[in-house]
Amino acid sequence: MSLTPNAATNVARVLTEALPYIRRFRNKTVVIKYGGNAMVDAELKQSFARDVVLMKTVGINPVVVHGGGPQIGSLLARLGKESQFVSGMRVTDSETMDVVEMVLGGLVNKEIVNLINRYGGSAVGLTGKDGDLIQARKLALNASDDADGAIDIGHVGEVENIDASVVEMLVHGNFIPVIAPIGVGEDGRSYNINADLVAGKMAEVLRAEKLILLTNTKGLLSKEGELLTGLTTVRVDELIADGTIHGGMLPKIRCALEAVRGGVTSSHIIDGRVKHAVMVELFTDEGIGTLIR
Fold this sequence. Notes:
Blueprint: H1 5-25, E1 29-34, H2 42-57, E2 61-66, H3 69-78, E3 85-86, E4 89-90, H4 94-118, E5 123-127, E6 134-138, E7 141-142, E8 150-151, E9 156-162, H5 165-172, E10 176-180, E11 182-184, E12 190-193, H6 195-205, E13 210-215, H7 233-241, H8 249-261, E14 266-271, H9 277-283, E15 290-292
Parallel strand pairs: 1-2, 1-13, 2-10, 5-10, 9-12, 13-14
Antiparallel strand pairs: 3-4, 6-9, 7-8, 11-12, 14-15
Helix pairs in contact: 2-4, 3-4, 6-8
């Protein structure tokens, strides 16, 4: 079916607008944290896979770090095990960790790899245990800000160190790494790590051009509900201090902020509920979501 003149003009405009961005980001690395609705809605999953393949095709190097909390919760429920959370983090005993590894390192990771490959990419799935990629330490969670003791939430970790040599090898070999946020401690135990944190640290180590965090919100909103973008690190600190940034957005913003301070050129918090959100953010003048420089 042929395009109408107006439709053809719009396509040409989009391609023309994208060209300088393709030139600017060619051979640069972009780390994408993939999660939220974009991981469960069929159309959004397909649009994400196409976006990633297009990025690689035009010479940009995408590295995908994914979550999978809802999928973990669903399987635990089917096994008759109740999910418990402390300060928003899943309590992860040894049995739950087995399920986490099965879901993140197996079911979810391989589904993403398969989808990217189906649309013409060459994706390779990894966990942080492959090639000693993510060294973790057990996360110590205080009972309160004033408490001396800590709550034991099991196999929940934070990033101790990242050896990205296996990721760099894949990138230079024209592959798309897809990473599950599971690390390994000095004791050989597996640890479940927040995917935002892994993506941020991975972006720092790879000296990425961009860190993109897909969320289920438009981005960072002002107290009046307006989207905030084009923020500097100083402005973000001010918004944290005055309470504009709070709740569930706070850890995402801190992750994005630390990445920029760690050498990443810019961080983006974008609405993963929008089809082709990654392409809109990368290749258009308007962008979508919150940009932190």
